[in-house]
Amino acid sequence: MKRTKLFLISILIISVFISCASTGGSNSSSGGSTAAASVDEGPVLSASPVYYATGSGSSQSAAFNDAKMNAVKKAASDALGIASAAANRDKLMSKIYIPSTANAYVYNETMEILDRGDDNGSSTVSIGIRINLEAISNVLRANDIYGNIILPQGGEVLLSDMDRPSFAPEPVVAEEKAVEEKPASVSASSTVSTEATPEEIALINEIISKLSFMVYYDEESATDPFLAKTAVGMANRYLSENGMEYVDLGQIEQIKKDQAAAYEDETGQAVSMIQWIAGKLNADIYIEIVVDANSNTKNNRYYGSASVSLKNFDASTAAGRGSSYYQTVPPAMSTVSEDDALNNAVASATFNAIKKAVDQARAYTQKELTQGIKYDLVVQNTYDSRLMRDFMKKMERKVKSIKRISTSPEETKYEVRLIGQIEDLEDLIYDVSEGLSGLEGMSLVYQRGNSITFDSGL
User: Fold this and answer.
1) Residues 333-359: pLDDT tens digits?
2) How remote is the C-alpha of 386 from its chain's centroid?
3) Which of 110, 109, 108, 114 is nearest to 172 (CA)?
């Protein structure tokens, strides 16, 4: 009997130890399985997943709406499943897939621009944006469109973020690349030090310090002229605060209003009116601004996002002088109104972009000045070929280069490269001609942009 009791007690003690060991093992195992679960959770599901898409249109605003809707299409298709999306294609096209309603299904403040471009009046843009799955699922159910995770009885709709496109770098890098847009060759300081004389460097620096800017918006791309003028005003404020010469917006508007007929008579519309006005107001660089902005309201707060592109042009030749781009990330917030949020976003984006635009314009101008600005020189009445050859030889000592393009008794054409303005070339021609017997009466006939015409006086 005692042996039986001792045996039972032994069994009981062993059972307790086994139980304790099992409990400890269970805890340890539970911790291990939790860790394993955290590693193997797979994609994180969200009611506002990030989707990527590309859109196109006749304007940047249209391209953005198209891109947003294409992102919505991808999310709806994933939520419904391919089969249901295909079966309900007509309903989807008429009830949801309408580009003008895209903002109802996305969170605009999360939009990231990956790429954008313009070609022959057509704009394209690639974006990443968070999708409002609740808004999509509500419309789907309201129209009896079901499938996959869109169920008649309702329930939360969750999807994982779409994989980031391989062409799109991480957001911070993407923004820096978009803003810089500065070619490696535009290292003007190194170019100046190796190719220009000290006197030329001093002249180049003087010209660059006195560059005059004219900022205006691209009227063909301006969907909201008020916001576009806000951008112009902010750009001019930056120029003013940094002591740079600029043309006031009011002057531009006045000339556009009063001198449209003169513009057509003088140019035959061969140049843009903005370039013509820039020349009238003695601007060296004119900058065109393109603004794209959108807004939304969330939790009684107003959000505005803006992207601003600035393109620089030489006022005389319309040649490109660099560009810059900036997007507000994160969006601007206001407690007043969506208009206030949009104004803040546009002002912020422009203020950040204009500095880059000015730096670009100066760098390109400096590089060009180092090589010499190209001017077209025409001399009329050049029947004395020997005298004109002497004129060219004397000019060679005064300019970076001079090349004869064509010659005849009626006129001779040259391509001249000079570190200086068109007025400097005019003065130089007077100096050279006064030292040549027969050309003392040389006089200016006509000048437009970088083209200048003289009569030899022969």
Assistant:
1) 888 888 888 888 898 889 888 988 999
2) 53
3) 114
